[in-house]
Amino acid sequence: MRDFLSRRDFLRTGAAAGAVVGGLTAINPLEAGAAPTKDVAWEKSVCRFCGTGCGVMVGTRNGKIVAVQGDEKNPTNKGLLCIKGYSLPGIVSGQDRLTSPMIRKGGKLVKATWDEALDLVARKFGETLKAHGPESVAMYGSGQWMITDGYAASKWFRAGMGSNNVEANARLCMASAVTGFMTTFGSDEPMGCYEDLDLCDVLVLWGNNMAENHPVLFSRVLENKRKNPKMQLIDLATRRTPSTDAADLYVEFQPQTDLALANGICHLLIKKGLVDRDFVEKHVVFKKGKTGIGYGLEDRFKFADEAKLSTFDEFTTFLADYSPDKVEKLTGVPVATLERLADTFGNSKLKVMSVWCMGVNQHSRGTWMNNLIYNVHLLTGQICKPGATPMSLTGQPSACGTVREVGTLAHRLPADMVVMNPEHRALAAKIWKVPVEKLNPKPGLNTVEMFRAFDRGDIKCLWIQTTNPFVSMPNLNRYRKGAKKGEGRFIVVSDVYPTETTQFADVILPAAMWVEREGMFGNTERRTQQWNQLATPPKGCMADDWQILEVARRMGYGHLFPTDPKTYVRELFEEYRQFTLGNGKDVASYEDLKSHRGLRWPVVNGKETARRYVEGEDPYVKPGEGIKFYKNKADAGKAVVWLRPFEPAAEAPDKDYPLWLSTGRVIEHWHTGTMTRRVPQLNRAVPKAFVEVHPEDAKALGIQDGQTVRVVSRRGTLDLPARIDGRCKVQKGHLFIPFFDESLLANLLTLDSYCPISAEPDYKKCSARLERV
């Protein structure tokens, strides 16, 4: 028996039905719930979309995918899938699938052999490296990279070419979560697990439309509400969504003021005597850092944070500026609501859980906002307990497993290690069998700075895999113009379909996709999952990691990598695993992953860990320690409560651009739509982007629902249909545009400001105006 909603119940439940209306019908040649038959082979895999990590059973016939169904043995989803999960067979079979390498000759892309294409890539990277040094080459990957893709890229760049210019698009969605974890706990990724969603008495959504973006996890929330009469769902947001429909309390605040809201809650916790003083004394230190830290808008922006010890008394004094009256004026949240929030978090009889995703992370103060949510939980002791914990949700299937754990960011090595630390470089050199001098101690360029450097011409060779940056980058016109300049720039793109990004490529390499290859992802709750190759890729399509290894071999770095095509994935993974063992980041062995539906690290002696830092669950917590944040060695195993103030957004409405503009996703499409727009059922459901407009703003301009309107920012102009009072509802004075549509590029309008600590852009806040067309 499943512990949460069946597909039928899921659709019948109000909020979920609003999110997935018409959605859970099987769209595959076989019914999604069909039993195995003699001519269909079924094996386990993992969904290709969000960071939930739903298990799927894939049905194949003669090397082709014919159906999927939810994997009832997988503890993540126990058989349930969302509309995108059921569409998985369709993502590999678009009519325009790339099946041949292509090289730009005379301004046109023409077909080439793999040897010709790979030789050209190797030659260009080699010549650029020799002429301009390691800072002139770059690799831009993805939270959709499989674990071995990211590991191969990182090793090739760092141990081969001596360059740290390895980045991934998770910089655009999860970097603030990383820096939030690191600055508060000294280690990345959540301490809790999905079971906490089943056990909490209160779930607080911090700017998180969970019903559309993590619908299977949201089904667990709805089932908890059904079983637990006292369970409350609180939605803190700037716009009403299907998640709001299920909420017991909707708290609407003005953009950027979540910083003040969190501080206001902490102010009241202290004033009301709701702080767990014993927990704070045992497990917390107080710190303050720089303020007025800027917005990352300047070219070659540099930032160095600082940390100074503080005290509870200083923290209390700092919070004096966040009295309920002041917070109400700034945020728009009534004093009575602030009081209710503080009383809820401070009620020791309730198990309170917080979740968040892009609304917090894609924020000019994203690191601070992560810190502030932890502050609320640390002050009340609502952490590391079943049902009572903060949990940052993840947007991509392996943003955790590949980007964060393997370390495919410009300053990182595997397992929370960094290139700046000589001890970490020494361990990497030992595992990689290279002289330690080979490893560059200078961090590479973060994603925004990487594309700015490409615009300037400082980076000359750029390889893009498994992502579509010329749709997803903010302030898009700037970076598209940079890619068009030529002038010695060289772009390689590995993908499965033509995209806006492949249009700029000098070389296109067609990639094998999802279960067309052996692979592994790591999900939000630290669960590493493995699957075998289940289908045959189209002739001419090769795995991303194979492509990297082949170019590295042609450049003379073949000694760094395994050579047996049958075992190289296992060998790469087991080598990467050496970084993780013995330091609280231990991932399971490849053999264990093959025989399980994933295991949550740290995995010690074959046993996974549900909750980190907890005695009796985490093997690194010693008897008698209870809770120990052992990775934060700098603060003797204690977590940090930070003094982080409210600071305004980088750009706010004014007389010329009087509206707030935000961007995001819809349930039918995923990221830039490269996969979902090629699934007919999903594309018919939402065929093009739109702009959500408040009815009063529409009335003032005489705009009708569906009418084409013009959205203008300081960076660009976009004509698209208005959606008035639709599934989601913006506040008066606000606009929202989904970014999946390559024909209506939302990011022509957005601002490339970013959190100076995490370097993650703020896609949720810029100013715009609306015009009749």
Automatic annotation (TrEMBL):
Taxonomic superkingdom: Bacteria
Keywords for the protein's UniProt record, in alphabetical order: 4Fe-4S, Electron transport, Iron, Iron-sulfur, Metal-binding, Molybdenum, Nitrate assimilation, Oxidoreductase, Periplasm, Signal, Transport
InterPro entries: Asp_de-COase-like_dom_sf, CT_Nitrate-R-NapA-like, MoPterin_dinucl-bd_dom, Mopterin_OxRdtase, Mopterin_OxRdtase_4Fe-4S_dom, MopterinOxRdtase_cofactor_BS, Periplasm_NO3_reductase_lsu, Prok_molybdopt-oxidoreductase
Catalyses which reaction(s): 2 Fe(II)-[cytochrome] + nitrate + 2 H(+) = 2 Fe(III)-[cytochrome] + nitrite + H2O
Amino acids binding Mo-bis(molybdopterin guanine dinucleotide): 84, 144, 169, 173, 256-258, 358, 362, 468, 494-495, 544, 663-672, 747, 764
EC numbers for this chain: 1.9.6.1
Main enzyme class: oxidoreductase
Cofactor: [4Fe-4S] cluster; Mo-bis(molybdopterin guanine dinucleotide)
Residue positions binding substrate: 739
Domain spans labelled 4Fe-4S Mo/W bis-MGD-type: 40-96
Annotated localization: Secreted
One Pfam match: Molydop_binding
Residue numbers binding [4Fe-4S] cluster: 47, 50, 54, 82
SMART domains associated with the record: Molybdop_Fe4S4
UniProt modification remark: Predicted to be exported by the Tat system. The position of the signal peptide cleavage has not been experimentally proven.
Cofactor note: Binds 1 [4Fe-4S] cluster. Binds 1 molybdenum-bis(molybdopterin guanine dinucleotide) (Mo-bis-MGD) cofactor per subunit.
Biological role stated in the UniProt entry: Catalytic subunit of the nitrate reductase complex NapAB. Receives electrons from NapB and catalyzes the reduction of nitrate to nitrite.
Family according to the record: Belongs to the prokaryotic molybdopterin-containing oxidoreductase family. NasA/NapA/NarB subfamily.
Assembly information from the UniProt record: Component of the nitrate reductase NapAB complex composed of NapA and NapB.
Stated name of the protein: Nitrate reductase
Annotated organism of origin: Geothrix limicola
Gene designation: napA
